[in-house]
Write a structure and sequence with these properties.
161 residues, Pnp Oxidase, Chain A, 4 helices, 46% strand, binds flavin-adenine dinucleotide
Length: 161
Amino acid sequence: MTKREREITDIQEILRILDEGKVIHLALCDGDQPYVLPMNYGYTYEEGKLTFYIHGASKGYKYEIMKKNPKIAFSIECDTELFEGNVACQYGMIYASVMGKGNAVMCEEAEEKMAGLSILMKTQTGKDFEFTEKLVSIVNVVRIDITEFTAKKRPKPAAMQ
Ligand SMILES: Cc1cc2nc3c(=O)[nH]c(=O)nc-3n(C[C@H](O)[C@H](O)[C@H](O)COP(=O)(O)OP(=O)(O)OC[C@H]3O[C@@H](n4cnc5c(N)ncnc54)[C@H](O)[C@@H]3O)c2cc1C
């Protein structure tokens, strides 16, 4: 990582970014052609293992890619704010972000789809929701097992605080 002094290693701060971010930029690879799309997500972090859940309609290009190649990369950001300067190169953006890599797995069992959607709704809304087998039968739910991740932030320059 360049500018390593901006790296975040505190897991609580990393989880706060995942709570705030709400939108994952999910990168897939169709052969040698990258494909990136924004999606809402839910996550769990248990025993050092980060897992995302995403959902969508029962068909779509993203699923065709994932089935051929489950490898993904992602980025999630929050706290974005432009700061100004006297000249263009003094402008910048404060941010906090998490990036990483993993593998996408299509959830087949209704139990896992229901659990995944409850996790997604908890992350998105902070509220508890339950789902029926009928409801989950018409959507796809994808579990993403994260194999590595890092986090970084750019605070506001000291002169501007
Ligand atoms: C903030 C945000 C949150 C979202 N959350 C979700 C979510 O939780 N679940 C979900 O299923 N979708 C979500 N979407 C929509 C998502 O980005 C995709 O549009 C959708 O999932 C369809 O993707 P697909 O690969 O199946 O494309 P398809 O519907 O199969 O379409 C294929 C083509 O359509 C075009 N296309 C697809 N999506 C987009 C797009 N977003 N913008 C411009 N062109 C596009 C591309 O050229 C793509 O190759 C969200 C979008 C935004 C902006």
